[in-house]
């Protein structure tokens, strides 16, 4: 996102956060604003002319606001209407970045609701858990990655799998991600989980172990990684028995392979190198 669009997003985000904080029920307000912003993006995705018009810098800010209000004014609640008005009046680099900004704002609203509800860490863990689920369920992932399927069809499929099993905030975020893929469902969900960790002031460490980690093991590992990296760590863990033992830790682009499978592979490589000489 270019500088102008980042500035526009920050401006609108400030208003969004104020609206949520000052509402009588911040959790409900956050859920409503987030959900309605995603519905707005759905319509912008369907109507290219509208998407271009509300970001057209050749029009006066009041004209862009008028277009946004004419289309969505009766479809959304007053707080969302105010957010959309400010977004329309702001200067975005292009229509694509306005759309991206609204998606980010929708996520921000839902995550504020989760925080107010005391569920932010739970949402983080559930989103990562969904990415692990899809990694293990290849057929489901294939269906969700089908570019010929509509967003509504893919959302309906995922909703049937997760309904009642995760918080409403996790469900809303997951369905939004599946409907607007960036790379693939697994990485997209894990990416949002990493973003939530950052909102909590932590760096995500993806830990793959041969056996499931206990709570005490997770705490001990987090403490050791915090000493290494000098910052708080959120453990995102998954199980892969093929590692045979130990674990593989990924923090950003860095990989620490302490698995038995990794050790065997390195021993074989060393032996092959020795034999070659």
From TrEMBL:
* Transmembrane parts of this sequence: none
* Membrane topology field: Peripheral membrane protein
Q: Which Gene3D superfamilies match?
A: N-terminal domain of the delta subunit of the F1F0-ATP synthase (1.10.520.20)
Q: Name one GO cellular component term.
A: proton-transporting ATP synthase complex
Q: What's one Pfam family the UniProt record gives for this protein?
A: OSCP
GO terms assigned for molecular function: hydrolase activity; proton-transporting ATP synthase activity, rotational mechanism
Q: Which PROSITE patterns match?
A: ATPASE_DELTA
Alphabetically list the UniProt keywords: ATP synthesis, Cell membrane, CF(1), Hydrogen ion transport, Hydrolase, Ion transport, Membrane, Transport
Q: Where in the cell is it found?
A: Cell membrane; Membrane
Predominant localisation class: membrane
* Entry's family note: Belongs to the ATPase delta chain family.
Described by its record, this protein's role is as follows: This protein is part of the stalk that links CF(0) to CF(1). It either transmits conformational changes from CF(0) to CF(1) or is implicated in proton conduction.
- Give the protein's recorded name: ATP synthase subunit delta
The coding gene here is atpH
């Amino acid at each position: 996102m270019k500088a102008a669009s980042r500035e526009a997003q920050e401006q609108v985000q400030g208003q969004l956060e104020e609206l949520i904080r000052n509402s009588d029920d911040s959790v409900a307000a956050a859920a409503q604003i987030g959900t309605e912003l995603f519905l707005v993006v759905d319509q912008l995705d369907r109507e290219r002319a509208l998407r271009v018009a509300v970001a057209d810098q050749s029009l006066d800010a009041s004209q862009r606001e008028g277009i946004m209000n004419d289309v969505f004014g009766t479809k959304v609640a007053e707080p969302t209407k105010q957010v959309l008005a400010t977004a329309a009046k702001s200067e975005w680099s292009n229509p694509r970045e306005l759309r991206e900004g609204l998606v980010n704002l929708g996520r921000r609203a839902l995550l504020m609701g989760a925080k107010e509800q005391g569920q932010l860490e739970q949402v983080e863990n559930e989103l990562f858990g969904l990415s692990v689920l899809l990694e293990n369920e290849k057929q489901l992932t294939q269906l969700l990655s089908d570019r010929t399927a509509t967003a509504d069809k893919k959302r309906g499929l995922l909703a049937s799998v997760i309904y009642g099993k995760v918080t409403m905030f996790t469900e809303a975020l997951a369905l939004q991600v599946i409907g607007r893929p960036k790379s693939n469902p697994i990485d997209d969900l894990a990416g949002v989980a990493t973003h939530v960790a950052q909102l909590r002031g932590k760096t995500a460490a993806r830990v793959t172990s041969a056996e499931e980690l206990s709570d005490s093991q997770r705490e001990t590992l987090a403490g050791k990684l915090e000493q290494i990296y000098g910052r708080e760590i959120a453990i995102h863990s998954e199980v892969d028995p093929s590692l045979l033992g130990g674990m593989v830790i990924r923090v950003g682009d860095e990989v620490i392979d302490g698995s038995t499978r990794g050790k065997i592979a390195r021993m074989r490589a060393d032996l092959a190198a020795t034999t070659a000489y």
